[in-house]
């Protein structure tokens, strides 16, 4: 009797606990859902606005789904919208950004890799000091160097050009890429380089044949990081280029801010999304390496 | 011709002297083991022979040629590392032929050399695998294969067995010995394991604090250690070092050892030169007795000592008995089941092998 009773209470307890757990889950999921909605709201507004005709937007529909779906705004943003006096759309600026971002990413990642290699496998007196100085660059507020950098670019004859912008991005990307590669290479055993030296390999041979092939994850991390940073940069773009050499972020700003007549909300939204697509694309394609590369430690031999 | 001469070699880092005038010389086909605890400078010395560390003073000569200023690849050496240092992204084949590729050896020759080495080390079936797919012992073999194809004048081994488990370590030890017998190449081998040194070496250099304590054949190092440090480092369990006194009676030396609550033990018939005998007569010395020099006696033999056995540790083939003698803890290696704990026993000592050390300098007395 007592046994049965205790069993019953046990079952009751279990049920209660299950309910309590459900309640707990509810408390977790509800705020999460609310947060997600809140976070995704602007994106939703961007997408639906970009697909609406302008009249519908001015008719008062803002958050609701479009009554008539049209890609006109996307087409306009890509190839017709006026930026300053030229009505070319974002296309040439998108190309500008690509012309800037690809060499800048390749150069800064390459230099970072060599820096990391030297700082870990070919240590020299004061290596830590040099690394410290490079780290300092990570914390530098870019606003502080605008004027000296403008002067430097002027002296180099690179002012207002895409190569100039590449130079700036490479210079300020090196501190981050060096940090990535140094911390990755530090976990590679030094005996690996020694073995290669005994095998007769020199500085660059060891780098190409032994070190780099083991570094795919960190190369991907560095590329994603640099691509996102450089593509999204506005400050350097607006400061060091002008007119037809501007990157897409600057052109986007001009589309949005310099309009005559009615504000073309749908075109603005489409343009903003066009500007964001490459970084999204890169992250989706290589994102899994990103997490892996950031968490990967030693390469177990 | 592949001799190695290390001539008054020094290594300093700033004011820190890591190696103090080390001189070692070995002949063609010798197997030199550099033995010592961590931090004694043995790996530094090996790296200096390899050319991976600068030489601060003195000369290293390989086959009579000074190599101080040569880079590792020009020294005609091959090296096996503790972590094996296999290139992680290359297959076993690519690992082994990497060095040959750099030296521009044609593919046909490379393939032949890789085949030969792989057959010698029985890794032919592993040639297309990556290092991460190999076990510790297999990686070890690949690392040796990489060294062998070089056909160097000198093999350098940097603690190659210390990452393996105990069983595999013994197997690979035999393997290395067999390889040495087969190839006949001069080898320098660094280890902190005295058993490896004893089993592999033709010459052992025991090192401590950047100084070579003794350079000799392994059996000599074991039987006649140059000082108390070497005596304690080589052999397991370690040699017992017991304080005592020397008495000379009619040309024969007797060591007198104080035993608590008993009559002093007298170990007579110790070999001593007449010069040493006169110098150390009635003086204090350190008496070195290896655990296996003890045996169970009947109390009448010369050099018998009566002791109270404290602890017995059976190891299988024999039993270690621990007791107090001359105020220190002493271990004897005895046949099984001959003594038991907390009981008195009479042990005799093989006096012909007993060694004596000076109590101040701790050097061997000849």
TrEMBL record, chain A:
CC terms in the record's Gene Ontology section: plasma membrane
UniProt keyword terms in alphabetical order: Membrane, Transmembrane, Transmembrane helix, Transport
Ranges of residues in domain ABC transmembrane type-1: 94-286
PROSITE patterns, A to Z: ABC_TM1 (PS50928)
GO biological process: transmembrane transport
Transmembrane intervals: 26-47, 98-118, 130-150, 162-185, 206-227, 269-291
Subcellular location: Cell membrane
Keyword Transmembrane applies: yes
SUPFAM superfamilies noted in UniProt: MetI-like (SSF161098)
Topology within the bilayer: Multi-pass membrane protein
PANTHER family: ABC TRANSPORTER PERMEASE PROTEIN, GLUCOSE IMPORT SYSTEM PERMEASE PROTEIN GLCU
Protein name: ABC transporter permease subunit
Organism field: Rhizobium fredii
Taxonomic lineage: Bacteria, Pseudomonadati, Pseudomonadota, Alphaproteobacteria, Hyphomicrobiales
Automatic annotation (TrEMBL), chain B:
Key words, A-Z: ATP-binding, Nucleotide-binding, Transport
Pfam families linked: ABC_tran, OB_MalK
Similarity comment: family membership: Belongs to the ABC transporter superfamily.
Places the protein is found: Cell inner membrane
One function term, GO molecular function aspect: ATP hydrolysis activity
Protein name (database record): ABC transporter ATP-binding protein
Membrane topology: Peripheral membrane protein
Organism of derivation: Rhizobium fredii (Sinorhizobium fredii)
GO biological process: one example: carbohydrate transport
SMART domains: AAA (SM00382)
Record-linked Gene3D superfamilies: 2.40.50.100, Nucleic acid-binding proteins, P-loop containing nucleotide triphosphate hydrolases
Coiled-coil parts of chain: none
SUPFAM superfamilies with a match to the protein in the record: MOP-like, P-loop containing nucleoside triphosphate hydrolases
Limits of the ABC transporter domain: 4-234
InterPro entries in the record: AAA+_ATPase, ABC_transporter-like_ATP-bd, ABC_transporter-like_CS, ABC_transpr_MalK-like, ABC_transpr_MalK/UgpC-like, Mo/tungstate-bd_C_term_dom, NA-bd_OB-fold, OB_MalK-like
One Gene Ontology term, aspect cellular component: ATP-binding cassette (ABC) transporter complex, substrate-binding subunit-containing
Superkingdom as given in the UniProt entry: Bacteria
